[in-house]
Amino acid sequence: MDAVMRIRKLAKRKIKTIVLPEYDDDRTLEAARIIEKEKLAKPLVLTPDMVDKNELERYIEGYYKLYQSKDIDLDTVKKLFSDNLYYAAMMTREGKADGLVAGAIHTTADMARACIRCIGLEERFTIASSCFIMDVPNCQYGDNGTFIFADCGVIPDPNARQLSCIALTAAELAAKVLDLTPRVAFLSYSTKGSAKTKSAEKISQALASLRELSPTILADGEIQADAAIVPEVARIKCPDSPINGEANVLIFPNLEAGNISYKLVQRLSGCRAIGPLFLGLNKPASDLSRGCFVEDIVDSVAVTAIRAQ
Known about the structure:
Layout: H1 3-11, E1 17-20, H2 26-38, E2 42-45, H3 53-67, H4 74-80, H5 84-93, E3 99-101, H6 108-119, E4 129-135, E5 146-150, H7 160-178, E6 183-187, H8 198-213, E7 218-223, H9 225-229, H10 231-237, E8 249-251, H11 255-269, E9 272-279, E10 285-286, H12 294-308
Parallel strand pairs: 1-2, 1-3, 3-10, 5-8, 6-7, 6-8
Antiparallel strand pairs: 4-5, 4-9
Helix pairs in contact: 1-12, 2-12, 5-6, 7-8
């Protein structure tokens, strides 16, 4: 069973309400019909007539109180909440929706800002990041072509501690959403000190930090991509690696590497790339590419529903 089939099956186990604020996007409306028909979740398409004026005022006041110390004025907050996205994020914060999916007509920056500020950050991590589920056809690597790539959308140049948090949240997603045993690789152009640079040193520190956060996790780094996913190469370059060239969670050293890599793999292999899926929030939320297709929205809602179970 490929990753998409597995995700859709798991989403049906317990139906969750996922709010879709982009009511005026045709792809979103079609996706909502499919989601409801296939019973993957309960899609809540948030149209203007569904916005309760009293709740809106309460959300505006609550948001203003949270952030007035940052010199934000009330008029600015009211302008933010003229967009359904912020109302939907506050609904998710309060549990009136189990998760949020948007981004078909919003930028990733808009999505990240709304989700971080309204839904809030998990206390364990205090950072938000993102990942993609990559389902590569006819691929023997990873878990029969299934990988998690992170971070591909949020943190431009993560430090060692941030990399370890990205790795742990991505590994937890792999276990919950895909029912996989995560095997984490911190990627680099260096394998085990083959290059002596600050970048490679940062990645080694990230591995040590991850092991403090989760001592039993299978992880290695710094490690080149071929040694991370090809067992024959791993036996040559890092024979003592605990992941044995079978990594399925790939952690990139910075946003440039992650974003470029996922787009190249997606276009060159024809793989399904589900995401960006936000990590480190108090409630699950998923971004979409503005060039997304209907099936991308369906898959993101299914993943978000599983995370909310």
